[in-house]
Amino acid sequence: MARINLLPWRERQRKERTQAFVIALGTAFMAAIAVTYSAHVLLRTQIGVQHVRNQRLRSEIGLLDAQVREMSQIDTQRRQLMTRMRIIDSLSRSRLDVVRMFAELVELVPADVHLTAVTQTAHRLHFEGIARTPAGVSEFSHNIDSARWLRKSSLAGVERKTGPVHGTAFVIDAEQVSTP
User: Fold this and answer.
1) Contact 168, 130 (CB under 8 A)
2) Taking the complete model, does pTM exceed 0.70, yes or no?
3) Residue partners of 128: CB distance under 8 A and separation at least 6
């Protein structure tokens, strides 16, 4: 048999394979670097875009916070105005109540009763006076109980007066009812 030396051919093939492997490895390395760089650039671009979005959102949130503060101030002003309106309405109604009270008080006081003081505290009325007889005090108390705008009369004190002024001094408290 003829002896054929296949060693140089195999060695050359091994070198070609090694060279192809090194080229493939270099190409893969370059491709990996290119992909990594591209991903880095893409991510940096997306981060920049997100920073712009975040900044815009911060500015919008700042505007909304300012609007919320303004709305809170407006709400506070609205509540203050509503309170003032209620006070004005209450004063307007109470003004009419005072006129009505004095107009009707004339009808409640019996002929033999003389009032010396009428005091109002919130919704309580305090009557002080002198009656010629104890029956006049009783009649006045009964008239208070039957009035539409007064209730819960209570006799706080009765004292028999002698001297220049004869009669029965009395103190009656009553609760005022606000009617529309």
Assistant:
1) yes
2) no
3) 115, 116, 117, 118, 119, 169, 170, 171
- Which has the closest alpha carbon to 144: 174, 119, 168? 174
DSSP 122: T
| DSSP for residue 112 | T
* Tens place of pLDDT per residue across the chain (180 aa): 567 666 777 788 889 999 999 999 999 999 999 999 999 999 999 999 999 999 999 999 999 999 999 999 999 999 999 999 998 887 777 777 677 777 777 777 777 877 888 887 877 878 888 888 777 778 877 787 777 777 676 666 666 766 566 777 888 888 877 654
β-strands 113-121, 150-161: how paired? unpaired
- CATH 1.20.1250 is the classification of domain 109-176: no
In angstroms, rounded to a whole number, what is the distance separating the alpha carbons of residues 8 and 24? 24
Q: For residue 56, which phi and psi values (nearest 5 degrees)?
A: -65, -40
* DSSP 8-state code for residue 163: S
Q: Report the residue count for the chain.
A: 180
